[in-house]
Amino acid sequence: MESPELEKAKIFILVEIIEYVPNSVLIKTIIKKTTGNVSAVSFDTGEALAVKISPFDTFIQIIEGKAEIIIDDKTTILKTGEAIIIPAHSKNTIIANERFKMLSTVIKSGYEDLI
Questions:
Q1: Which of 22, 49, 87, 94 has its CA 20 to 30 A from that of 106?
Q2: Which CATH class name applies to 14-114?
Q3: DSSP labels for 49-101?
Q4: Facing residues of 71 across strands?
Q5: In what order do the strands lie in the sheet with 66-71?
Q6: pTM of the predicted structure, to 2 decimals
């Protein structure tokens, strides 16, 4: 059985661990824990994630290309090397007007005082 995470203590080039798949959004888990996860994601041109609201902050960094990020109806264009934090409880979507790759980090701890 293949591990859902990348091998630990081994060097990798982030932009090379995930490829583009025609007409798809591909997600590769880097680290997955109960306290959060880190994933590399590739989007082919014209693809998008459904509008969602997460109970946690999500850190997005573009590692190749350019992405359209919509947070609470405000559109931001991010280019390679740029990043944004999608606040918890915000309506958001990610759109590929051209193909791109990103790093997505969700931190699930630190919200215990809010419950």
A1: 22
A2: mainly beta
A3: PPPEE-SS-EEEEEEESEEEEEETTEEEEEETT-EEEE-TT-EEEEE-SS-EE
A4: 74, 92
A5: 52-53, 91-95, 66-71, 74-79
A6: 0.89
Show the CA angle centred on residue 50, arms to residues 74 and 101, nearest 5°.
80
Encoded tokens for 67? 């992405």
- Closest by CA to 82, choosing from 98, 99, 102, 96, is 102
- Pair of tokens at residue 1: 């059985």
Alpha-carbon span 92 to 46, nearest angstrom: 17
> Which CB contacts under 8 angstroms, 24+ apart, belong to 5-13?
5/29, 5/30, 5/31, 5/32, 6/30, 6/31
CA 109 to chain centre: 18
Cα distance between residue 28 and residue 50, in whole Å: 18
Are 58 and 102 a contacting pair, CB within 8 Å? no
Tell me the pLDDT tens digit for each residue of 20-52: 999 999 999 999 999 999 999 999 999 999 999
* Closest by CA position to 35, among listed 92, 97, 112: 112
Q: Alpha-carbon distance 67 to 3, whole Å?
A: 29
